[in-house]
Automatic annotation (TrEMBL):
The lineage of its organism: Bacteria, Pseudomonadati, Pseudomonadota, Alphaproteobacteria, Acetobacterales. PROSITE patterns: THYMIDYLATE_KINASE (PS01331). This is Thymidylate kinase. Keywords: ATP-binding, Kinase, Nucleotide biosynthesis, Nucleotide-binding, Transferase. ATP binds at G11, G12, E13, G14, V15, G16, K17, S18. Pfam families: Thymidylate_kin. GO terms for molecular function: dTMP kinase activity. It catalyses: dTMP + ATP = dTDP + ADP.
Amino acid sequence: MTKGLFITLEGGEGVGKSTQLALLERALQARGLDILVTREPGGSPVAEDLRNLLLFGQHSFSRRSEILTHFAARFDHVDQVIEPALAAGKLVVCDRFTDSTLAYQAYGRAEGEVGTLSLINNLQKQLGRQPDMTFLLEVSRDTARRRLAARGKPTDRYEKSDEDFHIRVAEGFRTIAEQNKNRVIVLSTEHMPAEKVNAVIVEHILSRLP
Ligand SMILES: Nc1ncnc2c1ncn2[C@@H]1O[C@H](COP(=O)(O)OP(=O)(O)OP(=O)(O)O)[C@@H](O)[C@H]1O
Ligand SMILES: Cc1cn([C@H]2C[C@H](O)[C@@H](COP(=O)(O)O)O2)c(=O)[nH]c1=O
């Protein structure tokens, strides 16, 4: 039985998820909460190996094999890391989860094709773990691109995709938020300093705790 709370951060590249994760860890630990911060793809040793393949592998995936590889990583992460932490009563905060597979693979790659959406939704049902709360961070593509260029990390498979792909991903996230209003909180953070965004997220999380 779950005792903890499972929170995810979602959005396109460069919207500030990793920054928020680090700030959240500090803010929630300072309030004496037992928090586990993790990410996808990744978060367990096997899933981190699969992350390398997904982001930097030499060869291109078929549509279905890409989805299954994201879910192979996710099943391992959930079974070995997330479920045990939740059972121990921890607050688990994860950078990306199944909403990213829907946004990137179903809306970005497959342009919302019904068969792809249904494959992902079936895998999600088998997985049996859904976030309790999701924060969808949004900035304009210009801002995200500027931030990514300034950050100077190696460019991965997804960041290399064309502009139309990223537009479909952003629209996909919007659709997911519309369909899951009870779970997804949309934060438009274009002109907000990271500390202000963090204060808003912390307030939402604290309001959910007993
Ligand atoms: N609110 C903000 N205002 C200005 N700059 C920000 C803000 N939040 C994050 N940044 C900067 O934007 C860049 C991208 O942020 P970050 O790495 O947190 O994004 P991300 O969503 O995790 O990206 P990715 O999905 O590619 O890992 C970083 O250099 C970070 O310092
Ligand atoms: C979980 C997940 C992720 N992706 C993509 C989205 C990003 O471009 C990368 C991860 O990089 P980040 O720097 O950690 O944000 O992977 C995806 O396409 N599908 C997924 O399910």
